[in-house]
Each structure stands twice: as structure tokens, then as C-alpha cells.
Amino acid sequence: MALPQPSDDRTALVTGASSGLGVHFATQLASAGQHVTLVARREDRLNQVAEDIRAATGITPLVVTADLSDLESRSRVAEQVASSGRWVSILVNNAGLSTSGPVAASDPEAEVTMIRTDVEAVAHLCSTFVPPMVENRTGAILNVASTAAFQPLPGQAGYAASKAFVLSYTHALRSELSGTGVAVTTLCPGPVETEFGEQAGFTEEETHLAALRYLYVSPESVTSQGLAGLAGGRAVVIPGVGNKVSAWSGWAIPRRVLLPLLRSQHPAMQRGA
């Protein structure tokens, strides 16, 4: 199943488009001729990304500033897209964040913000933009989860649970939309060189542990594999052999064996130990 064809009345909407994977998703889609809509909180960063994309591809993106952890702000995304005269034919739910550390030492507000961004926003935007795709018999949805989705993760309990939701939700959505002309894929990256680790509260040393280096895949490769998998009709894309092994292990190893090992190795659980 190919991606929807570019058209003046369509747009590819990418959340979390001000940095990291979101920039690469938007750039690659624009390079393929898709009109793109960039959604994130940081307007100055979005405007710079939009200018870079325009200079590189000739596509002028629509910039939508929104806090995806806020219901009213999310609702305005659809309004601004509609006012541009386009409908969303490709949806990339890329925005996401994590906290780190044990729940007993967590910031309640940060935990809720994470869940609203990683869980609520995915469901809200899918339920908003899927109906026109079904009506038009064409569309594509790429929901970005993580290899953390395949097992509980002490030290990032809320994040792994949120990504498990995304994986389960997207599998179900894919089944519901079978035969409608709408493609649905979950992208499950492992570690990637972006701002994500720093924003989650990891130190530079923790994000560059030697034991994790074999899991890293470049952002360009992660996004290109995700979009290729979406175009190819794949259910789940896990970039990198090491990450495929990690995901399989998360499913296969008994929890009573796996969880103590993950707890002992997670850097956020080692602080103050």
C-alpha cells in the first residue's frame, strides 16, 4: 500500500516537529512532494524548521503551535488545518516525552504531562483525523511507540506503559481500518541520538552507556524505515537488529526474570543506590 498521493487539498501532519525525529519525518515527506503541517510547542523552532524545509524542497509548511498535553490546544490543531483548506491524509504521531526515576521520587505533574502527551494526544488526533481518511478511502497513520512498549520498565514505568498503549491501540486501529484504504503502522525505535534523553532527565554519561551503543540507529534511518514500513503496509517497524532482539526478549523472557535485570541495569534506578 503506497502512501496517499500529494495533492493541494491534502497535508501530512507531523507532531513533535520542532526537533529530533519530527524534523526528519517532515523533511522526508516534503521531499516526496507532500505538503506538511508542523506541530509542536516551540514556535521559534518550528519556524526555523519550516524555513529549512522550504529552502530544501520548495514546500512551504503550515506551522501550528500547540501544547499536545492540553485538550484545548490539541483541539485547535484541527481548526487551523481546516482553515488552511487542506485535510490530513497522513498523520505522524511522533510527539512524545519521558520521565526517569522511580515512581516514589516522581513529580506528579510531570508524570501526568507525559501521559497526556504520549497517550491522550495519540488517541485524540487519531479520532479527529481518521474519519476523513475513511471517507476519502485513502490515508496513512504512523504512531511512534518505542521498544520500551514490549515490557514494563522500572525507572521509566509511565513511559513504557504509555508506549505499550500506543502499540496496542495502533494494532487495534489497524484491524479496524482493514479494507478502508487507510494504512496504519507502529514505529518502535530504540535509542536515537536526539534531545529525548536529555529532556527525560538522563545525564550525557547515562545516554551514552557503552552497553547501549549497539542499539543506536540514526534519526534519518529511523524515520525513513518508519515511512517505508507505512508505505509497505507493515504493522510494526523496529529499526536495528539489536532493537529487534530487545523487543523479542521483552515479549519472551518471563517477567520474574526480566524485571529484576532491567531494574538493576537502568541508570535511573542506580542514582543514589
**Proportion in β-strands:** 5-15%
Count of DSSP-assigned helices: 11
Count of β-strands: 7
Overall average pLDDT: 92
Strand order of the largest sheet: 3-2-1-4-5-6-7
Q: Which structural class is indicated by helix and strand composition?
A: alpha/beta
Helix content: 40-55%
Query: Unreliable stretches, pLDDT < 50, 5 or more residues?
Result: none
Cα distance, first to last residue?
50 Å
CATH architectural designation: 3-Layer(aba) Sandwich
How many domains, as an integer?
A: 1
CATH topology: Rossmann fold
Q: Spell the H/E element sequence.
A: EHEHEHEHEHEHHHEHHH
CATH H-level superfamily: NAD(P)-binding Rossmann-like Domain
Concise structural overview:
The protein has 273 residues and is α/β, with parallel strands linked by helices. The protein has helices at 20-31, 43-57, 71-83, 108-136, 157-176, 196-199, 204-207, 219-231, 241-252, 255-265, 267-270, and strands spanning 10-15, 36-40, 62-65, 87-93, 139-144, 182-187, 236-237. A seven-stranded parallel beta sheet has the order 3-2-1-4-5-6-7, with helices on both faces.
Salient structural properties:
alpha/beta, seven-stranded parallel β-sheet, Rossmann fold, 273 residues, globular
